[in-house]
Amino acid sequence: MRKLVGAALALALVASMAVWAGRPMHADAQGGGSIEAEVKYNGPAQVDKIKVNKDTEKCGTEAVIEKVAVGGNKGLANAVVSVPDAKGAPTAKKITIDQHGCKFIPHVSATTPGEVEFKNSDDILHNLHTYSTANPSINKAQPKFKKVMPEKFEKPEIIKITCDVHSWMLGWIAVMPNPFFGVTDGNGATKIENVPPGKYKVQAWHETLGKQEKEVEVKAGQTAKVAFEMKK
Ligand SMILES: [Cu+2]
């Protein structure tokens, strides 16, 4: 009996080891590195305020449009940092953009080609209008009963989105060729992980301040730092 139990245990151990070995390894273990990016803006925040007199129960009476959002230590929010030339798995997790409080949330999203889920959390009529060249343009209503509306963006491109019902509503979707990107937080920081080692041009893009490029070398298991300073 003991022998049997022992044999069974040994078998179980071998089986669990086989399962473990079959698991995908952590990408860093395959030799990827990280990029820590910091985007700064040496200037004042730019915030537009518009009086609202439509759907005020959902939209409020004032729309605040943060064209340039500057946080702690001059950090620039909502900048997309990307590594367009890195080679890797083509898809990122599916993203959702919510029309909520008569704003697109998040204001700036990044993803890889594929489907984006548009939500309407407001219980009022919204519209989705995209301004694109590589992808077909979209201009369609999202009525209150259409809580979720999936749309496809097959080609890499940075796309402006508006709602024609509420003229102040503005958002951006950065469709990237690979999953090596990040959108800066309120402090102007973002981290891109599991980038294959190599020398790259890293890009930073901001809706009103434009684009910048910096060279960076990614080494296996290490974190490379890159700093951008956007100008007017
Ligand atoms: Cu709207």
Number of helices: 2
Regions with little confidence, pLDDT below 50 for 5+ residues: 9-29
Number of strands: 18
Helix and strand sequence: HEEHEEEEEEEEEEEEEEEE
Q: Report strand order across the widest sheet.
A: 7-13-12-9-10
Percent strand: over 45%
Quickly give the structural class.
mainly beta
Shape: globular
Helix residue percentage: 10-25%
| Ligand identities | copper (II) ion
- Main β-sheet, in a few words? 5 strands, mixed
| Average pLDDT number | 89
Oligomer: single chain
**Rg from alpha-carbon coordinates:** 22 Å
Q: N-to-C terminal Cα separation, in Å?
A: 80 Å
Characterization of the model:
The chain has 232 residues and is mostly beta strands. It is 11% helix and 46% strand. It has helices at residues 2-22, 56-59; strands spanning 33-41, 46-51, 62-68, 80-82, 95-99, 104-105, 108-111, 114-120, 126-131, 139-142, 148-153, 157-162, 170-175, 181-183, 189-195, 198-206, 210-218, 223-230. The strands form five sheets. It has a five-stranded mixed sheet, with no helix packed on it. A four-stranded antiparallel sheet has the order 14-4-16-17, with no helix packed on it. The longest helix is centred in the N-terminal third of the chain and has 21 residues, at 2-22. The chain is globular. 29% of the residues are buried. Mean pLDDT is 89; it is low at 9-29. The structure holds copper (II) ion.
